[in-house]
Amino acid sequence: MEDFTYILQKISAGNDLTPEEADYALRQIITGSVPPARIASFLFGMGCKGETASELTAFVHVMRKAAVPVVVDTESAIDLCGTGGDHSGTFNISTAAMFVAAGADVPVLKHGNAGVSSRSGSFDVLRCLGVTPDLKKDQVETCFRETGMAFMFAPLFHPAMAHVMPVRKELGMRTFFNIMGPMLNPAGVRRQMIGAFSLETAQNIIHILANLDTEFAYAVHAEDGLDEFSTTAPTHVFQLRDGAVMNNRVFDARVFGLSAATNGDLRGGSPEDNADIIRAVLDDKASVPQREIVLLNAAFAIHTSGIHDDIKDAFYAAEESLESGSAREALENLAECTSDLQ
Fold first, then answer.
1. Which residue segments constitute the domains of the chain, with CATH numbers given?
2. pTM of the predicted model, to two decimals?
3. 142-170, pLDDT tens digit by residue?
4. Over the stretch 202-250, which tens digit does the pLDDT of each residue have?
5. Alpha helical stretches, state H, the chain
6. Which residues contact 259 (CB under 8 A, 6 or more apart)?
């Protein structure tokens, strides 16, 4: 294998890396063999060139191998998260939907982070909801066995990122790590719902997941810019099922009889503000737009699990979870369990 200088020269000329070269380059970076200036050159060069699905697949393989593994039964378990970077300012929709899905008996292994491109990441809002979000490997495994839910705080499970994070912060720009993040679940879940900051990224993600050991996945991007299923505009949906990719179907929330919302209806704020909204949703006291977008995303999360094969049945299960109080109970159980494990 050529040295790292060769890699930089190749991408600076606009040429794509082979899977072997991509693997080599990222392994050199995460093991601390590449100085910060060259890491920055690599990240910037890859962004300018444009990353291929083949390169990103190799990067994901490297990062998954380097992760601290969470060893649990992942049958029917899901992760639902977004790439971030949509700059929408909404409340934490996927975090709220996680509790609705769990209340419908779906095992949830959510992987997330603190806010980077937003004021409130999943880590931040969970802490305000009374959940201890920074459990270590053995605690996460116990929590999932006891509650059917767990949250994995990305920095604790990806120590290899230690050499990259300072450079990413210094660059202050989106890199391929934003695309990879949702695909690096430490428990190795094989069923995922991923929101993307652009249509091209959603398409890339579904093809990367097709190259991996994925059973079922949605990758979505809404025309209003949301990295969620949206109620303010149609949502572009890419689906992976049994190894086959279904490209870019357009979904309209009115199929479920949901009312059209505006971006302002879904606006969030600080982690404390967003926690208040999520509590209101789980208590079935939120505004109609807040309730409906959570139900919509929870329905597709439930469908991702395979427990309900029909999306309309999954939507009814989401409604039942919310109206019966099961979703609120899921939050209470997670908060109590994580507190006991401290």
1. 4-50 (1.20.970.10), 79-154+177-340 (3.40.1030.10)
2. 0.93
3. 999 999 999 999 999 999 899 998 998 88
4. 999 999 999 998 999 999 999 999 999 999 999 999 999 998 999 899 9
5. 4-12, 19-30, 36-49, 53-66, 93-103, 122-128, 137-147, 154-157, 165-171, 176-180, 199-210, 271-282, 288-305, 311-324, 326-340
6. 231, 288, 289, 292
